Amino acid sequence: MPRTRRKPPASTKPLVRVPSRIGSLDTSAVIGQLRQLHEDAEDAHVDRMPADQELFGALLYLETYARALKDVRARRASAIERVRLWEYLREQVDIHQARAVEDARAANAEWAELAPALAVKAPSAAYNKALRLRAAAMHNPAQPDRPVRRTPEAVLLAERQAAAKAAAERRAEEEATRRHARMTPVARRLLEHRADLDDDDDVTFWLDQIEAVLPHCETPTQFVSLGIYVKAVARGLQKGGMAQASEDAQAAYEAAVAVVSA
Length: 262
Known about the structure:
Blueprint: H1 27-40, H2 55-64, H3 72-106, H4 111-117, H5 123-134, H6 152-192, H7 194-197, H8 201-213, H9 220-240, H10 247-261
Helix pairs in contact: 1-2, 1-3, 2-3, 3-5, 4-5, 6-9, 6-10, 8-9, 9-10
């Protein structure tokens, strides 16, 4: 019976499995520990070993002088750490190479110029490889827990989704700023007339919150908080009635109702 051929996944579909990664690593500390192994082994050439911050050079030294570690356990531990450090370097390469490509393009480099540097033969291949490199530094906007597939189509889709999300966030922030500009004078008027409004424990509490946040209201979170407090005051005043309020206090209340209803 012939086998059913498995369809290849869609080029834009996120990866199902999250690849295992080394992630964050204090490479200087690890190199320092490996240097100590060579010093303890009285490696005659350890003074030639590059500084702890020079990861690539230090790894080449450790490879060249691996036999200076006479103790087999120390040699095994050092070799395993070298494997881990090389894997860490591999993870960083795509990110930094992608940034280098971006810098080259920003400096008006043509894809034809970048092709030899990216070890491909055609400008279109350089373009596609650069897109694949960008996947390493990207988060999938639609599914943040899934890496972006390393295909040009997936990268372009993820970039479009990220741009749309950023635009939506900007619009929300702009709307919050506009709403805050309308909310601030209303909140000030409520405080100015709180003596006529402040006849209920709930109203007192929410006016106190307005008084606390209003002088330092600068962030989107504080904007939202101020709106919540003004709405709570309006709701409390509506519940308690405004029969004894002055004309100015009544106007302040009506302004609060209008701004939270908008």
